[in-house]
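Q: What residues go here?
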């Protein structure tokens, strides 16, 4: 599917990276209202190329289906402390259930050698990625932030990819997402297969000379700081123009592959 020279480690071409996906996006009826939020591109385009791990933090934490909706409330002036409280009954407090499940689950996921990313449901009090409404004690929305599960992911797995379903609007978006996952897989596995991190760094800086902070990337690769290197590499890639990256991906695909053309 991908042209030779796209990845550093040969096994990356056939890899199926593990992706945690909010269960409601796969069609499971686990939302607070007992409904699903089926996402066609995830299930009909990406699913054949990734290993989907469907997960609903709220159900995993023991909350029922259906259940009373909750929202995130900022605890006093500390913007880092959030409480998951009932929308219609503020005495309903499920923060500890969600944070305990999130911390334990993500610690377990860290042990996987194929986990590369997550696709989470936007605006969710558990899964939103910088899109979850945050309220004050007067019930006024005053900012957006991460849901409790997404926040734990950011803290514990900052070198892995974290997207919302809203970022997957086309097959070109899916193609870019898949390539980023395979790049992460490549970085995590290439050093153990005889390709040191410096070789990996040189490979991708040659493919994408537009990358910023090349000297810092090189310094981290020489120091074998794999997770810090990968976090910075992903940050720099996502700072590039999306159309440039999508065009790069199209050029790295074999021309015979039509799956990724919007309109097919």
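A:
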């Amino acid at each position: 599917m991908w042209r030779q020279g796209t990845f550093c480690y040969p096994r990356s071409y056939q890899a199926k990276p593990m992706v945690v996906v909010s269960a409601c996006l796969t069609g499971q009826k686990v939302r607070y209202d007992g409904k699903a939020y089926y996402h066609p591109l995830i299930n009909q385009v990406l699913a054949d190329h990734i290993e989907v791990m469907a997960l609903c933090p709220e159900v995993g934490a023991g909350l029922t289906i259906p259940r009373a909706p909750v929202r995130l409330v900022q605890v006093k002036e500390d913007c880092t402390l959030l409480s998951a409280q009932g929308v219609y009954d503020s005495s309903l407090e499920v923060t500890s259930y969600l944070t305990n499940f999130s911390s334990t689950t993500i610690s377990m996921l860290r042990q996987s050698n194929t986990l590369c990313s997550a696709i989470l449901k936007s605006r969710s009090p558990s899964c939103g990625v910088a899109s979850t409404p945050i309220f004050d004690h007067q019930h006024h929305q005053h900012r957006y932030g991460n849901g409790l599960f997404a926040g734990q992911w950011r803290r514990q797995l900052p070198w892995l990819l974290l997207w919302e379903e809203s970022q997957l609007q086309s097959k070109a978006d899916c193609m870019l997402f898949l390539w980023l996952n395979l790049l992460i897989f490549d970085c995590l596995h290439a050093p153990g297969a005889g390709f040191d991190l410096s070789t990996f760094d040189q490979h991708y800086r040659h493919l994408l000379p537009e990358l910023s902070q090349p000297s810092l990337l090189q310094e981290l690769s020489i120091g074998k700081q794999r997770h810090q290197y990968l976090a910075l590499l992903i940050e720099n890639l996502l700072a590039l123009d999306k159309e440039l990256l999508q065009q790069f991906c199209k050029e790295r695909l074999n021309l015979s592959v039509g799956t990724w053309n919007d309109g097919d």
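A: Context that may help when evaluating the design: The longest helix spans residues 171-189. The chain has two domains: 10-167, 171-252.
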